[in-house]
Design goal:
The complex is a heterodimer. Chain A has two domains: 2-176, Flavodoxin domain (Rossmann fold); 178-216, no CATH class. In chain A, helix 1 (17-29) packs across helix 6 (150-160). In chain A, 41% of the residues are buried. Helix content of chain A is 42%, strand content 16%. The termini of chain A are far apart. A five-stranded parallel β-sheet of chain A has the order 2-1-3-4-5, sandwiched between helices. By secondary structure, chain A is an alpha/beta fold. Chain A has helices spanning 17-29, 47-56, 73-79, 106-118, 140-147, 150-160, 166-170, 179-190, 192-203; strands at 2-7, 35-40, 59-65, 90-96, 122-129. Chain B is an alpha/beta fold. Chain B contains six helices and nine strands. Chain B has helices at 11-23, 46-49, 61-68, 87-94, 133-146, 160-165; strands at 2-6, 29-32, 73-78, 80-81, 84-85, 100-107, 110-115, 122-127, 151-156. Classes of the chains: A alpha/beta, B alpha/beta. At the A-B interface, helix 3, helix 4, helix 8 and helix 9 of A face helix 2, strand 5, helix 4, strand 6 and strand 7 of B.
């Protein structure tokens, strides 16, 4: 099997969490002779090549971050340029977000199934997983702890041609975090997390408090 | 304040809204955004972590953002693509991120960003074309959760009278 992979993140490849996820995913994907070609929506110079690849491939995987409950505007701008295929092409999706709970991604997931129909293709499922915001801030083992599990999902995709398996559905984790975790995380967010965000902000050259109101 | 952002090139919609709103004694502020330079969100996170509240993309969206933080209602008029808002309509929502902070909290049982401002802005959508209305209603309600506000509904251009009746 050969797979066209489209990284639908508007963030440039170097800083793209979705790209880091795909790095691990494709390790598993390729173990049994599955091949792939990957393009980046963030690079408009690639759009013509992506269009050609869309029309010539029958297995497509679009990986994307959730933007305001659905797909990013830039990815929509690209998709608007495509015509429906109506030739049995399968599209599967990797939908990722910063928020950890599965429920946060369900509205976006629902659109992806509808989108597939508008493109005249067959829906091969969506791999839904949150809690990915930290990827760009981590390196080495710390990053691998977040992205590493996607390697197994690459194997699953290669074996099944999509994500419609129990293993992929379980990959989402908690739909809603249990009460004790919400309590602990709520405290963490008001304390240590704010210190951590402030540290990151300072390293980025930020000189204002993170709750600064520039327009008031 | 009622803010209306028209991302389509059809100004007859905003003309009708203004006339109907005037009949109700309302004077919404209308931004014709079709001719404005409004790019997509590039996901840089600068508005959360480098220049809090300020978007790194320097274009005409700042005009809208400065008004949104004082608006009781934001209505976006959008063309339809692939059953959803087209990219111009979606960009208006994607670029609104600076009104949230990096800080997180739980609202009921789900995590949310802590809002940057006191103002809460309800959102309404007026769509040209043939969107998947049921889905857009669901999306609008979810999107409003992110602003700690409520969805005013999704209306086709044939239902402008109903949409205006929700402007108050």
């Amino acid at each position: 099997m050969h797979v066209l992979i489209i990284n639908g993140s508007p963030r440039v490849k170097q800083y793209s969490n979705t790209d880091k996820i795909l790095e691990k995913f494709t390790e598993g994907l390729c173990e049994n002779n599955t091949t792939y070609e990957q393009y980046e929506i963030s690079d408009k110079n690639q759009w013509e090549d992506i269009r050609k690849a869309y029309y010539s491939n029958s297995n497509i995987l679009i990986a994307l971050p959730l933007y305001v409950e659905c797909i990013p505007g830039l990815l929509m701008e690209f998709l608007e340029t495509l015509s429906p295929k109506n030739d049995g092409t399968k599209i599967a999706y990797i939908l990722q977000s910063g928020f950890a709970e599965g429920i946060q991604l369900r509205c976006g997931e629902a659109y992806l199934e509808k989108l597939t129909g508008f493109l005249g293709c067959e829906y091969a499922g969506t791999l839904v997983k949150g809690d990915n915001f930290s990827i760009r801030f981590f390196e080495g083992d710390m990053r691998d702890r977040v992205t590493g599990p996607y390697t197994e999902m690459g194997r699953e995709y290669a074996a099944n041609g999509g994500f419609n398996t129990d293993k992929c559905r379980a990959f989402t984790g908690y739909e809603i975090l249990p009460a004790h975790m919400r309590l602990a995380l709520g405290i963490l967010q008001r304390t240590l997390a704010r210190t951590m965000f402030a540290r990151i902000a300072r390293s980025w050259g930020c000189t204002k408090p993170l709750d600064y109101r520039p327009y008031q | 304040m009622i803010l209306i952002v028209n991302t389509t090139s059809d100004t007859s919609v905003t003309k009708e809204i203004k006339e109907r709103a005037a009949g109700l004694g309302l004077e919404p502020e209308v931004i014709e955004a079709a001719g404005m330079k409004i790019s997509h969100c590039i996901g840089c996170n600068y508005c959360w972590l480098k220049t809090p509240g300020v978007c790194s993309v320097k274009d005409d969206y700042e005009i809208i953002l400065k008004k949104v933080i004082h608006a009781d209602q934001l209505w976006v008029i959008s063309d339809t693509a692939l059953g959803f808002l087209d990219h111009k309509g979606k960009n208006i929502f994607d670029r609104i991120l600076p009104i949230a902070t990096m800080y997180l909290k739980f609202v009921k049982d789900q995590m949310r960003h802590v809002p940057r401002y006191e103002q809460r802005t309800d959102i309404g959508i007026i769509c040209r074309g043939e969107p998947d209305m049921d889905y857009l209603q669901r999306w609008s309600e979810r999107a409003a959760l992110n602003f700690e506000s409520r969805s005013l509904g999704v209306f086709g251009t044939e239902r402008i009278k109903e949409a205006v009746s929700c402007m108050c």
